[in-house]
Design a protein that fits this description.
The protein is mostly helical. It has one domain (3-50). It has helices spanning 3-11, 21-31, 35-44, and strands spanning 18-20, 48-50. It has a two-stranded parallel ribbon with strand order 1-2. The radius of gyration is 10 Å and the shape is globular. The two termini are 19 Å apart. The relative contact order is 0.24.
């Protein structure tokens, strides 16, 4: 997993420094990583998730 490349993609979806659950899940699927890995990565970079739908993050 190329963390930096994923974070750069995440940054294109940020609004007020946050990303929606739906967008985070879609990016995880596109990058072939688990929701947990995406959540861990977002936590590492202190990016908050909004509108969590499944309690994954």
């Amino acid at each position: 997993m190329d963390k930096q490349a994923i974070i750069e993609k995440v940054k294109t979806h940020l609004q007020d420094g946050k990303i929606s659950c739906q967008e985070a899940r879609k990016l995880a699927e596109d990058e072939g990583i688990t929701y947990k890995d995406m959540g861990d990565l977002l936590n590492e970079y202190k990016i908050k998730i909004t509108g969590c739908q499944l309690g994954c993050f």
